Automatic annotation (TrEMBL):
Source organism of the structure: Lactuca saligna
One Pfam assignment: FAD_binding_4
Domain of life of the organism encoding this protein: Eukaryota
GO molecular function, one term: oxidoreductase activity
Signal peptide range: 1-22
Domain FAD-binding PCMH-type: 68-243
Protein name stated in the entry: FAD-binding PCMH-type domain-containing protein
């Protein structure tokens, strides 16, 4: 009885202290604002009825919705740059860390969780999109998501312009660019980060900087080095790219019994094909054969060609006739319609769904990534398939091909280093669908399987370093940052040595006290010379 009373007393005191602590932050915000009453409507604490719905709305990976996931102390939902500036400075003054959320697709939930008291700046309200068709550019608020951007571009340009971003509509533009950004136009126009012209960023001192005032070093860093390590980007100026009014999409399904292994083996060399208009991604998973207990692999090849069916067929007959792409399975559509198809909707779906964040499904998974530079041999593929047969149908594999325009850029052009010589990005994942959370016995078995698959892949993926994609961040590969040796374990996997060292030097210049920090953020070392 006495122990229970003491626990409740401690809990009550802790909550009271936390409430007072939060009030200090709010008072700081209000004292620096001309209209305190309107500002107060943009700030939420756990006692507010809207706090949980706002936090939960953009938690795009539902495995983080469990009760044990740490929530923010305060959520700020700014509508303009001035509240971002004030929030940043007040967080510094009152000892909070900050987390910056755009679309909420961080694979490890780092934009909305932390193990320390933190303020979450939710940029959902700052999602203006201004398209300049004449100059093929766009200024985009950092709270905008890809679906909103694509819809706006298509409407304003009459389907003649697009942006080389990803395929999932609710991915935030800032998170995508901050890690480089891959998508269906990768082989034609390279990464999203390669197509940024300018940005507006609020630095650690609350100053708003554009490309000219921030300098080329910082502008380089935020286009692939995880922008939130350096400040709060509030807007991006994008280079829009020309696309044909009609593109051609096809989908081919094959199982092992239908020769999928041999098809996949040849498919791996797509990056060496000269025609940059052709992009084919693939997905693979295991399934039961009919009503039996025997398993097979099904591989789905999803292709898009920047041109008509008449232009595509001769290309496929030349470079990949074994896939059997015929006119009957080809469908011509606009670029924005192809985005619908690549996230699993019919091309006839009303385009407005791209602007409806609530209509887009969320994930419930854990993902790992690697890059492949040499085709995996048939024997290696068969080992991978056998590993999938050990899984309970919760595992998946996604291939993002490279080559084409990507080969024109040096590894150091932006922080994204996976350039010439890269065949494809290989992402592996497990789903927790059907489980209460990611810590049930079944979930833990799935995670152990995913790790065993990662170990199996070791001989077949890039080495020295073993490369990973920072937008598929994975805390399992390390979080240590006490010195360069510790940080290089994960940092060189994402950015390679030269880029990682440059990022560290830039970080030391723009955020020397490491205010913008989180697991796997660009580190600041206490002793000079450790990044050399």
């Amino acid at each position: 009885m006495k122990k229970s009373f003491v626990f409740l007393l401690v809990l009550t005191l802790a909550l009271s202290f936390s409430s007072a602590y939060s009030q200090d932050f709010i008072s700081c915000i209000e004292s620096d604002s001309a209209n305190a009453s309107s500002i107060s409507q943009l700030i939420y604490t756990p006692g507010n009825a809207s706090f949980q719905p706002i936090w939960q709305f953009a938690v795009q990976n539902t495995r983080f919705l469990k009760p044990s996931t740490p929530r923010p102390s305060i959520i700020v939902t700014p509508t303009d740059e001035s509240l971002v500036q004030t929030s940043l400075l007040c967080a510094k003054k009152h000892g909070y860390e900050i987390r910056i959320r755009s679309g909420g697709h961080d694979f490890e939930g780092l934009s909305y969780t932390a193990d320390v008291p933190f303020v979450m700046i939710d940029l959902n309200n700052m999602r203006s999109i201004d398209i300049d068709v004449a100059n093929s550019t766009a200024w985009v608020g950092t709270g905008a998501v890809l679906g909103e951007l694509y819809y706006s571009i298509a409407q304003k340009s009459n389907n003649t312009l697009y942006f080389p971003g990803g395929t999932w509509p609710t991915v935030g533009i800032s998170g995508l660019i901050g890690g480089g950004g891959t998508g269906n136009l990768l082989r034609k126009y390279a990464t999203a980060g390669d197509n940024v012209l300018d940005a507006r960023i609020i630095d650690v001192n609350g100053k708003i900087l554009d490309r000219k005032s921030m300098g080329e070093d910082l502008f380089w860093a935020i286009r692939g080095g995880v922008a939130s390590s350096f400040g709060v980007v509030v807007a991006w100026q994008l280079q829009l790219v020309p696309v044909p009014e009609k593109v051609t999409v096809f989908i081919v399904n094959r199982t092992l019994e239908q020769g999928a292994t041999e098809l996949f083996y040849k498919y791996q060399s797509l990056a060496t094909f000269e025609d940059r208009n052709l992009y084919i991604r693939s997905q693979a998973a295991s399934e039961f054969i009919g009503n039996t207990t025997q398993k097979t692999m099904r591989i789905i090849f999803q292709g898009i060609y920047q041109g008509t069916t008449n232009e595509l067929i001769p290309v496929m007959d030349k470079v990949f006739p074994e896939l059997g792409v015929t006119r009957e399975i080809c469908q011509e559509m606009t670029s924005v319609q192809s985005t619908l198809v690549f996230f699993g909707r019919p091309s006839t779906t009303p385009l407005e769904i791209l602007t409806n964040r609530s209509a887009i499904p969320k994930s419930n998974s854990k993902t790992k990534s690697n890059f492949v530079r040499t085709p995996i041999p048939i024997s290696g593929l068969e080992k991978i398939w056998s590993k999938f047969f050990e899984n309970d149908l919760s595992g998946g594999l996604l291939i993002i091909p490279s080559g084409g325009r990507m080969d024109d850029y040096a590894e150091t052009a932006t922080p994204y280093p996976h350039r010439a010589g890269t065949l494809y990005l290989l992402a592996t994942s497990v789903s927790f669908v059907g489980q209460a959370n990611d810590t049930t016995p079944v979930s833990l078995r799935r995670l152990a399987w995913l790790q065993s698959l990662e170990e199996l892949l070791t001989p077949y993926v890039s080495q020295n370093p073993r490369e990973s994609y920072v937008n598929n961040n994975d805390l399992d590969i390390g979080v240590g940052a006490a010195n360069y040796m510790e940080a290089s374990v994960w940092g060189e996997r994402y950015w390679k040595r030269d880029n990682f060292r440059r990022l560290i030097r830039i970080k030391a210049n723009v955020d020397p006290d490491n205010f913008f920090k989180f697991p796997q953020s660009i580190p600041v070392f206490k002793r000079r010379g450790l990044a050399q």
